[in-house]
């Protein structure tokens, strides 16, 4: 059984449910002692931009996205943010939350090539 897990999220403002559910699942994986990586791409890169993630609150029974992101990072989860997707949207590394790392697709491929299960939102 793999000791890692990957969640890819390509939505934030375009589909707040998917952003929220992606972080709910990532927190569950991290809480199950899986080394967990989130890869944010397309519109999902906004999940790592403080002002944008603060806008996402799907209401009960879900916590606001900001709380889910903070919980994930505090638990040791890793967040990679697609560098070309950031560039397309004019997002700089300095615009990201602490704990988010710009990365290209090669980082995702490497993670998955080691046998990590993955889900996409």
Could you characterize the architecture of this molecule?
- This protein has 121 residues and is of the alpha/beta class.
- The chain has a five-stranded parallel β-sheet with strand order 4-3-2-1-5, sandwiched between helices.
- The chain contains five helices and five strands; from the N terminus they run E-H-E-H-H-E-H-E-H-E.
- It is globular and about 35 Å long.
- It has a single domain, classed as 3-Layer(aba) Sandwich (Hypothetical Protein Ychn, Chain: A), CATH 3.40.1260.10.
- It has helices at residues 16-31, 50-53, 65-74, 83-88, 105-113; strands at 4-9, 35-40, 78-82, 100-103, 118-120.
- Helix 4 links the parallel strand 3 (78-82) and strand 4 (100-103).
Secondary-structure map with pairings?
Blueprint: E1 4-9, H1 16-31, E2 35-40, H2 50-53, H3 65-74, E3 78-82, H4 83-88, E4 100-103, H5 105-113, E5 118-120
Parallel strand pairs: 1-2, 1-5, 2-3, 3-4
Principal-axis shape equals: globular
Number of domains: 1
CATH superfamily: DsrEFH-like
Largest sheet: 5 strands, parallel
N-to-C CA distance: 23 Å
Helix/strand-derived class?
alpha/beta
At CATH level 3, the topology is Hypothetical Protein Ychn, Chain: A
Our count of helices gives 5
**Helicity level, as a percent range?**
25-40%
Mean pLDDT: 96
**What Rg, in angstroms, do the CA atoms define?**
13 Å
The CATH architecture can be named as: 3-Layer(aba) Sandwich
What CATH first level would be assigned? Answer: Alpha Beta
Strand order of the largest sheet: 4-3-2-1-5
* Low-confidence segments: none
Question: What percent strand?
Answer: 15-25%
